[in-house]
Amino acid sequence: MDDLLNPITGLTSKERKSVLSWVASLPEERIIEIFQDAVKKSFQLKDEQPKLPGKTAKYCAFILAARKNGWDTVRGKGYRVAGDEQYEDFKNLRSAKAAELIKRGRSPVKRKQILAYWGEVKELRANGVGFRGLSQYLAKERKVKASASYLQMLWSEVEKHG
């Protein structure tokens, strides 16, 4: 069923459930507007895809109507299917979030977790284990997820100064 619904609605099953939950939280006037829009969209869908079963077309039309009526603007998703105007509106927000991420850098928590097992890391490196192997070892044995590239960067930083 997902193979049929995902391309039409542009959403995964989990996202479609989120849309339904969002619609249920709206005032009744808005819900009625969405239903009216969905009826119009169901006729358009039926014209575009005549082999689509009626109930599936109506469901897809309802999801599309909810997206058009504001679901995509919830939680910063507005630029995903928005037009050029909405894309520009979110441009400043995206650049501010990116600047904040760059300013913060990597989480020191991850660094501390890895350095707690640094003796094991050094021993494994001495035995010829690569950074990808180290990453898998830490994830499996110590429940610390770290990418091989981060481990390599940390290795060069710690071993050069240490």
What report would you give on this structure?
This protein has 162 residues and is mainly α. It folds into two domains: 2-99, no CATH class; 108-161. The chain has nine helices and no strands. The protein has helices at 2-9, 13-24, 28-48, 54-68, 84-104, 108-116, 118-126, 131-141, 148-161. The longest helix has 21 residues, at 28-48. The model has no long low-confidence stretch (mean pLDDT 81).
What's the gist of this structure?
This protein is mainly alpha-helical and 162 residues long. Helix content is 74%, strand content 0%.
List the keywords.
single chain; 162 residues; mainly alpha; 2 domains; 9 helices; 74% helix
Task: Describe the protein's topology.
Elements: H1 2-9, H2 13-24, H3 28-48, H4 54-68, H5 84-104, H6 108-116, H7 118-126, H8 131-141, H9 148-161
pLDDT averaged over residues: 81
- Anisotropy-based shape: elongated
Helix content percent band: over 70%
Structural Rg: 25 Å
Count of the domains: 2
Q: Indicate the structural class.
A: mainly alpha
Tell me the number of strands. 0
* N/C terminus separation: 57 Å
Content of β-strand:
under 5%
Low-confidence stretches at least 5 residues in length (pLDDT < 50)? Answer: none
Q: Give the helix tally.
A: 9
User: Mind describing the biggest β-sheet?
Assistant: none
Order of helices and strands: HHHHHHHHH
